[in-house]
Amino acid sequence: MYVQEAPGYPRFAAIPWCAEVLSDPTLRAKPVLSRIPKEDTEDSLLAETLNTNDTVSSTLGFFRLPQGEPPSRIEEAYTLYTLGSAMNGMTGALHGGIIGTLLDETLGLIISLNKNLNGTTNSPEVVTAYLHTRYLKPLDTPATVLVTAELKSTEERKWYIDGTIKNGKGEVLAEAKSLWIQLKESRARL
After folding, report:
1. Residue 9 contacts residue 60 (beta carbons within 8 Å)
2. Could you tell me whether strands 56-64 and 76-83 are parallel, antiparallel, or unpaired per DSSP bridges?
3. In sequence order, which ranges of 4-58 are alpha helices (DSSP H)?
4. Residue 162: strand pairing partners
């Protein structure tokens, strides 16, 4: 779906710097599936605990479709998050653990997008092996931020993905380098 058709688009389009980011007609929306409650408690952190007006009130995931036939891999994915003040670690600033969570969620989005593109959605899960995060500036709250994921390379079961969090001024507040590993077989659900 086009990003302009996505639920949540009007809320972000009302913020001038977000409207500028979202004005690119090549963008496509990707629902942030971790915001949807599931019976087996998967994704309950973002779907329930961090899904309030005072925590993470809105999200919008998006990407650009790759060019060519057949389509190549998706190199970048983005998520806009509107953050409240109920996740602060110090007065007026988001807790570092939540910063890591936001990065992890968006970095994982690029894997989901590529598995969908290649028709391998039933392949074993891909999990975070490491997420090295550098905190460059406090993330003041409340705020809306842009989290970017960039797929750097893949090697067999390994995915190397970098990410950033930027504020409305375009300042990089945090950056991450990560390694994700595709499991050899799917985990059995208990």
Report:
1. yes
2. antiparallel
3. 9-13, 16-22, 44
4. 150, 177
22-47 pLDDT per residue, tens = 999 889 998 888 888 889 898 899 99
pLDDT recorded at residue 165? 98
- SS3 state at 117: helix
> 56-88: per-residue pLDDT in tens?
999 999 998 877 776 678 999 999 999 999 999
Q: Report whether 160 contacts 152 (CB < 8 A).
A: yes
DSSP letter assigned to residue 141 = S
pTM score: 0.91
Rg of the chain over CA atoms, in angstroms? 16
Q: Which residues, at least 6 apart from 117, have a Cβ–Cβ distance to it below 8 Å?
A: 66, 71, 73, 74
State the Cα–Cα distance between residues 90 and 113, nearest whole angstrom.
Answer: 35
Query: Whose CA is closest to 3, among 58, 63, 71?
Result: 63
Residue 168 tokens, joined: 């409305």
Rounded Cα distance, 110 and 90, in Å: 31
